[in-house]
């Protein structure tokens, strides 16, 4: 059981490490449109929601995800893989809810893509915690890369505003 628990912890920790750069960068990038009125006005979509406003909706869930790499959340994630997955489920729900509020055409698709990737990764982690002895490291890498790509695409759109 000790080895199985360690494998689950490692898979969750690896996932968090894959996200560290992307989540932090996307969250930081969303502040720029609010401080630059010209970029915000140019990025306005027909729905009335600017790229900056749409990205700001996604920011809290990305910051939550980034918080898993430091402090109490990181320690909890490392010591209790099942609780770590619960944290991912919380972030998954927040990201999905935020993506549903995005109406800007430039951001909506990438926000939904990031939320979908988060849901798929969280579902994958459910399986890892349920059966840590049979963790597929290649699949872990693929899931992590997919999530990183989804969040990275969101960061690109948000930083371009």
From TrEMBL:
Keyword terms of this UniProt record: Signal
PROSITE patterns: PROKAR_LIPOPROTEIN
Position of the signal peptide: 1-25
Top-level taxonomic group: Bacteria
Protein name: Uncharacterized protein
Originating organism: Agromyces neolithicus
């Amino acid at each position: 059981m000790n080895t199985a628990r360690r494998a689950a912890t490692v898979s969750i920790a690896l996932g968090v490490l894959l996200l560290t750069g992307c989540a932090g960068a996307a969250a930081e990038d969303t502040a720029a449109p609010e401080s630059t009125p010209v970029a915000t006005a140019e990025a306005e979509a027909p729905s009335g929601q600017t790229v900056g406003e749409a990205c700001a909706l996604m920011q809290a869930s990305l910051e939550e995800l980034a918080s898993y790499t430091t402090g109490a959340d990181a320690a909890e994630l490392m010591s209790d893989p099942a609780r770590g997955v619960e944290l991912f489920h919380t972030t998954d729900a927040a990201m999905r809810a935020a993506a549903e509020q995005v109406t800007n055409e430039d951001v909506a698709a990438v926000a939904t893509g990031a939320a979908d990737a988060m849901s798929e990764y969280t579902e994958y982690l459910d399986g890892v915690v349920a059966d840590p002895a049979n963790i597929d490291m290649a699949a872990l890498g693929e899931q992590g890369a997919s999530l990183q790509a989804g969040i990275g695409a969101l960061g690109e759109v948000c930083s371009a505003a």
